[in-house]
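ok new one. same drill as before - structure tokens go in, u give me an amino acid for every spot. 264 of them this time. try not to just spam alanines like last time pls lmao
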């Protein structure tokens, strides 16, 4: 078996647009895991928002969460590595969002906080529930639980506008478009690629024995790192250009088809 570590993005890759993990995909992943291959979910989600999918697949390996800001052992919930943010550096971004009435949240490794959580709109609550998240009010955060990610969300034209304006700023953080509706701010050294590289080194697995599948700009670094980087058919062209090969879309079980082809 050439590939000893398989990294999978979650939204737009492993899951369908309806956030479904198909039985066929589960079965193929279980077959490969039985051969001794380790799996890691590489996602912008928090641990509690992605580990249930690992459990659904019968896996207890790893989760690279918050777009590389925190790597978790699924087996025991321990933190293998995380990047905390300087809270003072976030103030200008928070001020920008509040001045324009943009929705934002602040994430520690295991919790998501929102200012005025009790007054969130039904639309915002529905969004969080899709991602298996129950937001807490910002006033509830313990002082010793550092932030690892800030996320700004809104419709695509609005996020396009925010990115256009923020691209004129000098940033101390990694400012990343993680989806059509999301912009993430993380530590400057935080990315899926760097976290995957770190995990592979810990596990003693060379890059050529790593396979990665993703569909969006936040997946570029892990597709570049992996010995085989696979882009979903629903990826933007820039992602397809970086990948080594293509597979079908997330709604056509592209992950299952790729793993059958290259790992079974």
């Amino acid at each position: 078996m050439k590939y000893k570590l398989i990294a999978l993005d979650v939204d737009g890759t492993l899951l369908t647009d309806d956030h479904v993990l198909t039985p066929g995909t589960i079965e193929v992943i279980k077959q490969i895991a039985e051969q001794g291959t380790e799996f890691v979910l590489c996602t912008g989600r928090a641990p509690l928002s992605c580990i249930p999918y690992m459990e659904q697949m019968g896996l207890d390996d790893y989760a690279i969460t918050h777009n590389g800001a925190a790597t978790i052992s699924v087996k025991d919930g321990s933190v293998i590595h995380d990047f905390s943010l300087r809270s003072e550096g976030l103030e200008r971004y928070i001020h920008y969002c509040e001045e324009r009435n943009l929705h934002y949240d602040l994430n520690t490794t295991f919790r998501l906080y929102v200012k005025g959580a009790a007054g969130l709109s039904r639309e915002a609550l529905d969004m969080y529930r899709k991602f298996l998240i129950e937001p807490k009010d910002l006033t509830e955060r313990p002082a010793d639980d550092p932030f690892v990610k800030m996320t700004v969300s809104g419709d695509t034209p609005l996020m396009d506008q925010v990115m256009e304006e923020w691209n004129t700023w000098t940033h101390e953080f990694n400012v990343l478009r993680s989806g059509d509706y999301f912009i993430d701010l993380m530590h400057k050294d935080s990315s899926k690629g760097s976290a995957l590289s770190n995990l592979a080194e810990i596990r003693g697995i060379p890059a050529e024995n790593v396979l990665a599948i993703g569909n969006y700009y936040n997946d570029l670094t892990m597709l570049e790192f992996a010995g085989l980087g696979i882009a979903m058919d629903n990826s933007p062209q820039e992602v397809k250009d970086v990948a080594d090969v293509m597979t079908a879309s997330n709604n056509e079980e592209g992950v299952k088809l790729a793993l059958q082809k290259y790992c079974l």
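The CA atoms of residues 60 and 75 lie 5 Å apart. and btw The chain has a mean pLDDT of 95.
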